[in-house]
């Protein structure tokens, strides 16, 4: 379905710049380590990763819904940030997530794609992948409200 | 993201069988013509098409949200039907749709993919594509509740 | 939960004005009769009604998902229309609907409430009620993108 | 809209029992303190509370989306737990959340209502309320998959 994605999107920040920015404006995201981080930025999308440990588990010893939601939400934020620049005040207005399979502790990736980058709204999807066979454990779509351009922080 | 789709899905009905079954059990879908129909069935997914006419438009002369919702919903139904057989009583329990661009009258395709085919639930996504450049006009994810197997109608 | 609704909303159109406007700008909504219509407008909300007939049914002889989606979507449109005035170009950007019980043909009401009326977005919920005992058959939440004020059609 | 809620629901656990159970099976929920907890259980619903501190904030010094999502998700879990008993393996299958206003650090309540309690699925909504004037900061609807009854843990 990639043919239907917006064709003319170009990142304006590298993955290193994104992670440095996240650490600066959102220190609460990773309390001690770098559990949530961007690992790739590309035209029209990004990949974010959670290295899930004990504190991300829920009853049943699987990664909790809130931890997967956070990964999807960060994925949308990194999509917006990397494509429009340092807009710390971009905010989620809607996020819908389906949980499909259990994920164990370890690396969990969010493969994110911008579905629309409009003037005031960005719509994205995130496929959450985990395990040795790359199982699709969750899928999210969401909307970010974008600040008026030209008012970049930093 | 196709690598993460369920790998072992096999359709049990052809597109012709699907359309014949829809016409039989759901005659209300197409009042006069065959506006909504399946055009492809494949392992783990399907393509459905709406040939949108005047009666599918809303203010602004664009295809209405309900018409696009119907296409996504039919896409989920065809995914379920073609992969588990003639289960007319499979019902939608949740559908979330994002509308992203305007679509004019004409052919509109729903490219649908099964994200999970479980024992009692099927989760799917539908990318709604329209126009000469194949723009992504809407995107939906939804859940169908599946009847106990072996109680097929038909 | 009504205490948490926006407190300062005032309708600017009556239910008669809303229905006349719908008939004018959205004639496709009701092909022959007045199946979908507003029956009440109040501060912060509205009630819309579908008189469901044969053509709104799906396999199993229950009111179809698309018919209930349409009712919820119309409910959001009437919320926007009645509270900001004749803005025919307000468009749905997201709608999420849960289907919970079967509904038979007859009157089905959408009790709608504005959750937020912002500058560019309106968020609403619709409780879809049917049958002699007023069962909750579906529940939807959605977002409408609002046009810049002062550019009213009409 | 309360008239449309299921009328025959009766809690089988008290709020103290719910909190004790959460602490036992889900110790990761509250790392140091009791930030997320149930404060009321009633027929067909519950109230859950987050006492949001520094670690729940995001850029802009407002309570983060993931913290509000967690509150809504816990609200659904408490609804299920309190009405069907100690079913630690009830799992979220879908959650849709709309973020509407900013919330500052402090007490944030999730007023939760069961929309349907079926044999295999529970659908609920959560109105997230915060601040001195009880503003509606977010609204969520979600689905929990319920385990077969009679296989209670504990």
TrEMBL record, chains A, B, C, D:
CDD domains: PaaI_thioesterase
The family this protein is said to belong to: Belongs to the thioesterase PaaI family.
Pfam families attached to this UniProt entry: 4HBT (PF03061)
Top-level taxon: Bacteria
Keywords: Hydrolase
Domain spans labelled Thioesterase: 61-134
Protein's name in the database: PaaI family thioesterase
Taxonomy of the source species: Bacteria, Pseudomonadati, Pseudomonadota, Alphaproteobacteria, Hyphomicrobiales
């Amino acid at each position: 379905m990639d043919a239907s994605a917006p064709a003319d999107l170009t990142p304006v920040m590298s993955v290193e710049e994104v992670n440095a920015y996240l650490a600066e404006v959102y220190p609460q995201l990773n309390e001690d380590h770098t559990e949530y981080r961007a690992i790739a930025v590309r035209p029209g999308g990004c990949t974010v990763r959670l290295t899930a440990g004990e504190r991300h588990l829920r009853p049943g010893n699987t990664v909790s819904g809130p931890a997967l939601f956070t990964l999807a939400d960060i994925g949308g934020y990194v999509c917006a940030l990397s494509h429009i620049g340092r807009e710390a005040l971009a905010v989620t207005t809607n996020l819908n997530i389906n949980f499909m399979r259990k994920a164990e502790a370890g690396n969990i990736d969010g493969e994110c794609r911008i579905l629309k980058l409009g003037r005031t709204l960005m719509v994205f999807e995130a496929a959450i992948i985990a395990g040795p066979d790359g199982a699709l454990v969750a899928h999210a779509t969401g909307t970010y409200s974008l600040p008026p351009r030209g008012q970049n922080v930093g």
